[in-house]
Design brief:
Distance between the termini: 70 Å
Radius of gyration: 22 Å
Strand order of the largest sheet: 4-5-10-6-9-8
Structural class: mainly beta
Shape: globular
Mean pLDDT: 86
Length: 396
């Protein structure tokens, strides 16, 4: 008797040019990086460029039948949030193209249900998450100044000679972790292992801990975004300082999240978490994962203060029948909440701008003025139109 077994072809990323460097543009929405990815030579979709997620995931099941390859099996993912794991359909032989980068035989996971609503949070259409596997093969520079992602298939030695600082990275499943120290207001130090995460807009996330565990007294309860398993609600506070090698960052926003995803090898006395774009975009940095390191130097943005969602408001992406924006959530003890706004209110005017004339990206820009500025909101609740004015202040 003869048994035949078929195996998926090995996944391969390569440049479609003879040059040692390729680059492709990204856009930034709410401090998240969005890139255009051509999938299976048929459709160009918008993906989050995410160094914190190993796999490439398409979040809308409408694409399940759009690609000319069958899915092989069901795979379940757990993500940040409080819902059950989510079901995906695995496609083994995907082709992904980002500029002159081409991936062949790439596993792609497509959500079975439309349960991940990133659009309203980011203010733009999002179709998926581009995973971290290319970081293992290439030197990757996310150039926040030029809005280009640069890939090098060999060490860019000349570029790294001038004033870049090297720091060791521990690699786990295509993802890089930094050993950092966190200082609280009582000058107590906490060792931490933090994932370098371009898919997060929060400066620092600590997993499965409470502010009290770091002896932090002041915090707010707020929605901080969307994860693979739903909305992310967190206790948000500030740490006095974070040490990244010799780099010191003061008064840094930190969010505390419950998650089933944690790294088991981390010592129980070591904090597990993430470093997000609000720190990464202050650095000129090369992800040098082929040599288990990063190279970085501070940019002019390094001294800018850290602020958390200045508006303290999360909006639903789809407009109401009156062309307004519905408030999805408001941070506790925040100026808009104390002024009288509530979850479910329909914002119809922000300062002098009618919501019927603007998109959600414009609305978010208007709501997130500088600290100290006043803002006037006209809203509708139970068919009654009201107006509030309040000053934007930092509540943590």
């Amino acid at each position: 008797m003869c048994c035949l077994f078929t195996h998926a072809a090995p996944k391969v990323y390569s440049f479609t040019t003879s040059k040692s460097k390729v680059s492709f543009p990204f856009k930034v929405f709410n401090n998240i990086l969005i890139v255009d990815v051509r999938v299976n030579k048929t459709k160009t979709l918008k993906f989050i460029f995410d160094s914190g997620c190993k796999s490439t995931i398409i979040i809308h099941p409408k694409w399940l039948d759009s690609f000319d390859i069958p899915y092989k099996q069901k795979v379940y993912f757990s993500g940040l949030g409080f819902k059950d794991s989510i079901e995906t359909m695995k496609v083994d032989d995907g082709t992904l193209e980002l500029g002159q980068l081409k991936g062949e035989h790439i596993p792609v996971f497509i959500l079975s249900k439309d349960s991940l609503n990133l659009d309203h949070y980011l203010g733009t259409d999002v179709d998926g998450i581009f995973g971290a596997e290319i970081f293992e093969k290439y030197y990757v520079r996310v150039n926040y100044k030029t809005r280009l992602i640069e890939l090098y298939n060999q060490r860019p030695g000349k570029k790294l000679k001038n004033s870049y600082q090297k720091m060791a990275v521990q690699m786990r499943k295509s993802k890089g972790y930094l050993s950092c120290m966190i200082l609280n207001n009582k000058n107590e130090l906490f060792m931490s292992e933090l994932l370098l995460d371009t898919g997060s807009n929060i400066p620092v996330i600590i997993k499965n801990k409470e502010p009290a565990d770091l002896h932090l007294d002041k915090y707010i309860n707020a929605e901080i975004g969307e994860g693979l398993s739903g909305a992310l609600y967190s206790k948000v506070s500030r740490i006095k300082r974070i040490f990244i090698d010799t780099l010191k960052l003061d008064s840094v926003i930190v969010a505390f999240n419950e998650t089933p995803i944690t790294f088991k090898d981390v010592d129980e006395n070591t904090l597990d978490g993430n470093i997000g774009n609000d720190i990464l975009n202050r650095l000129d940095m090369y992800f040098a994962y082929p040599e288990n390191a990063i190279y970085f130097k501070p940019t002019q943005r390094i001294k800018e203060p850290f602020d958390f969602n200045i508006s303290n408001i999360i909006l639903l992406e789809n407009k109401s029948k009156n062309n307004g924006f519905i408030i999805k959530s408001i941070a506790g003890d925040s100026p808009p909440l104390l002024a009288g706004l509530q979850k479910g209110d329909e914002i119809i005017k922000i300062d002098r701008y009618k919501c019927s004339d603007i998109n959600i990206e414009d609305a978010l820009l208007l709501l997130n003025k500088r600290i100290g500025k006043k803002i006037t909101i006209q809203y509708q609740r139970n068919n009654v139109i009201s107006k509030v004015t309040y000053k934007l202040v930092s509540i943590i």
